[in-house]
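thought: fold this chain, then report.
action: predict
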Amino acid sequence: MPHRLRQKRQQLLADEVGCNPKPWGGRLSVALVYPNTYYNAMSNLGFQAVYQLIQQRDDCLCERVFMPDHEEMEVYRKSGASLTSFESERELESFDVVALSLSFENDYINIPTLFDLANIPVWRSQRGNENPVIIAGGICAMLNPEPIADFIDLFVVGEAEVLLSPLLETLQENVSREQFLLKMSRQSGYYVPSLYTINYADDGTINAVEAQSQACFPVQRQWLEDLNSSRCQSLIKTPHTAFGTMDLIEVSRGCSRGCRFCATGFTYLPPREKNASTVMEQLQPMLNADSTAGLVGAAVSDYSNLDEVTREVVACGADVSVASLRIDTMTGDQIQILKRGGQKTLSLAPEAGSQRLRDLINKCLSEEQILNAVKIIAEEGILNLKLYFLIGLPTEDLDDIKELLDLTDKIREVWCEQQRQFGRLGTITLSVNPFIPKPMTPFQWVGMAPATQLKKTIAVLRKQINRMPNTRLQVESIRSAQLQAVLARGDRKIAAILPALSHGDNLKAACRQQQLDPSFYANRQRDQHEVLPWDVIDSGVDRSYLWSEYQRGLKGALTKPCAPGCKRCGVCKLLPNGYV
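observation:
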């Protein structure tokens, strides 16, 4: 490794707290790869949890590998050095297993580059017994693994706490690569793409998926029933990330709300949470007067022990921060605790400006509730407010955008009225993102809005928001959103465009080279009975339930959150008492 990179890496390691590298000593070696930079990876609790689960085993060791940042990439390219692990600088190709942690579809683009730097063939068909076994997990493996199925030997479909140990134990057995993959393919939660044949129709849609050699079909997602047995928290701390000074801990997993656009909400069903005593037991060793406990979950405001935990954390002399607050459940006491912890900006997610669209997506929020939440935050003296909105939702029209602007104006009025008592107004930021229909949600059949429509909407928003004092607009790139839609909704053919994308080609050029139409994947409305690329995975939510929720959304019908005893979506049908 070039001296310059070694110095940088050694400094990052020296600044970490909680990292305990192991000697190799004949153990099964796993390179845990995050296809993004160190600075993004070490804020990811899932990545940290998998690292700890492997590292705590006596028969295994785990070392981390990250995507080089721009400066590091230049050094690698000029020197011709091979990509090495973070802890011991061992070449990636010398590990027994390379495990990819996949949190974002756009990170797929980095996979060919990572493999190229590591001298490992990216295509599964070109690798042999001399190469590591390539495994992938994370939310992307649970949503739609197909765009990178030709790169990966085995996908872990579900939560690591229940799937990692059987996988590592089987890897320890004295069997060939083929025998290992065959054995895993017959167990729920493991997807071996080489054992599945995809048959395409003349129009490019999928006719059928055929499983071979008794491989499971569909592959059922596995999940941890008792979240109290999980230790998903930032056990390695570093000052070199956005949350580096914070003790992050997962307090809940899954969400009962059923927002129809939300992949996380549906993929991590059923909703589960930790007892307050478990949270405090896991946090206690880290709390002091200089620490901040970051409570993480898909719906932290719905965490039934939120007030109890925050009180206990504050009693220990520490501060509290939360990942998000629900508009309809927040209280002034919660805001005061966050303010005490130094938070100057709080975020709310109305998602849509009109009541019609909020009902479409099952947000279950009224304008009155939104304005009341804004008032509570402003009254408590929080300086800045961030609002999240989606554009391009199904059936959206210009009237909906006008209502979004009207709502923003009303929010400004409430905000300014309450903030004047503090002698400043702060800033209201609208974070606007194009809606991307995700697999495993009720909107998986919907096509993404065309770029022309999104550009017109953004132009209208810019014109009006720029006239509002103390208000600014942040908009995600339409190109980036379209790329994400193709990667999220694509089939196995998409793998062919990833090497070109990794070399800097744009989406249109990369698709043109492979005679693919990006709109076929991103913008096409899909038929109710079409075989979808991700049908190889069974999330546990019945397809018929997702379709019925899609139809209810089009009618503006609301669906109540999950409640104890609920079995309506299918995830909890095997539990004797339903969702608990």
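thought: worth noting. The domain at 3-220 is CATH 3.40.50.280 (Rossmann fold).
final: tokens above.
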